[in-house]
Amino acid sequence: MPVPENSTVARLLRPPNSFIPDNLSIRPDPPGNPRQQWRHRTDDTAHRSRLDRTPHPRLPWPVTSPPTAITIGSFDGVHVGHAALVRAARERVGPAGRCVALAFDPHPREILSPDAAPPRLTTFDQRRRFLLDLGADEVLRLETDRQLLGLSAEAFVRHVVDEFAPVAIVEGDDFRFGRARQGGSDSLERLASVMGFESIVVREVDIELADQSIVRASSTLIRWLLEHGRIDDAARVLGRPYELSGTVVRGDRRGRSIGFPTANIDPASMTPARGVYAGIATLSDGREAPAAINVGRRPTFRGVETRVEAHLLGLPTSYGSESAATWAPIEGLDEYGWPIGLRLVAWLRDEVRFGSIDELRAQLARDVERAREALMECA
């Protein structure tokens, strides 16, 4: 007997890549019923966040997904505390399970109080990459708007359960959710017992800084450390060097005129304290190069705006020289308009105003040599 095309059985028998209507969601099994049920949503006014559901390319999840553990947050910076959440989610579902991170984007404060919003440590693309590296199978953008932020704590969790039918939701002990941050770990535990998932609360992660102080890992702490140029300590909290991302743009071209051409960067993430750093540049084509990086106002030229400039070392230009006095574009790349990442490895010196171009040129030569030495020590 043929199966009706639109029947529940037919939908369950569809191949993994079949189209799934947006108004369908998987509900947890009711007690005593071994089979998941499909249910049409009848409330057309219910909030549906716009999720970027691009899966990890190696794991195209079928309709009947494996056990899913969810962790939710802004994940700005993706530090060691966030790593603990992903690790706990993975441990809950095992290697065959599905670990999903839902990342608010933009940060809720950018919607509710834009003037008080913290500077971003990471773009969404960076967060996706870092969370996948930590073991998440999918990182989905939870687009933040006032409608989503206006949901009650219960409605927000119900929304997540409707979308993913998780066996567990994993959060830190300071996780807040729902309208006016009304939900916390206690309310998540209560909702878990009602909605049929496990609530797992991960304790804070403490880090010892260079001065031997013990601090709680947080995005706020990382911002403070970067503001004060303490990139070594920021790396301890992040679990890796801080990576500033941006786009290469046209600058004043002064560097090339004195023998030190730079890539001028329009930053998409937070800039650290003004000064000179040693780092690793990641180019848009995947190549990496050591770099001497300046963050500052160029006081020798009476600049007023803080800029980020990177003098890349060891990459051939289209003219075959890596240190030509006349700038040449990096071989294989356009002169401007491409994305770049700068991993800050070591702080070299404060920003200084020099009395002459010759003094500046001599100091830049020393900066380049110190950058090479610092990067070799860290290799």
Walkthrough of the structure:
α6 (153-164) crosses α7. Residues 1-50, 52-64 and 316-328 have low confidence and may be disordered. This protein is α+β, with helices and mostly antiparallel strands and 379 residues long. The protein is elongated. The relative contact order is 0.10. It is built from eleven helices and 16 strands. 28% of the residues lie in helices and 25% in strands. It has a six-stranded mixed β-sheet. A six-stranded antiparallel β-barrel has the order 11-12-15-14-13-16. Strands 1-2 form a two-stranded antiparallel ribbon.
Summarize the structure.
Helix content is 28%, strand content 25%.
Strands of the biggest beta sheet: in what spatial order? 3-6-5-4-7-8
- DSSP summary, beta strand count: 16
Return the average pLDDT rounded to an integer.
81
Radius of gyration, in Å, reads: 25 Å
Number of helical segments?
11
Q: Write out the CATH superfamily name of the largest domain.
A: HUPs
Going by CATH, the architecture of the largest domain would be: 3-Layer(aba) Sandwich
Q: What is the domain total for the residues?
A: 3
| CATH fold-level name of the largest domain | Rossmann fold
Characteristics:
alpha+beta; 3 domains; six-stranded antiparallel beta barrel; six-stranded mixed β-sheet; single chain; Elongation Factor Tu (Ef-tu), domain 3; disordered N terminus; Rossmann fold
Summarize the helices and strands and which ones pair or pack.
Layout: H1 8-12, E1 24-27, E2 37-40, E3 51-52, E4 68-73, H2 80-93, E5 98-105, H3 108-112, H4 124-134, E6 138-143, H5 146-149, H6 153-164, E7 168-172, H7 185-195, E8 198-202, E9 206-208, E10 214-216, H8 219-227, H9 231-238, E11 242-249, H10 254-257, E12 263-267, E13 275-282, E14 288-296, E15 307-312, E16 339-349, H11 357-378
Parallel strand pairs: 4-5, 4-7, 5-6, 7-8
Antiparallel strand pairs: 1-2, 3-6, 9-10, 11-12, 11-16, 12-15, 13-14, 13-16, 14-15
Helix pairs in contact: 6-7, 8-9
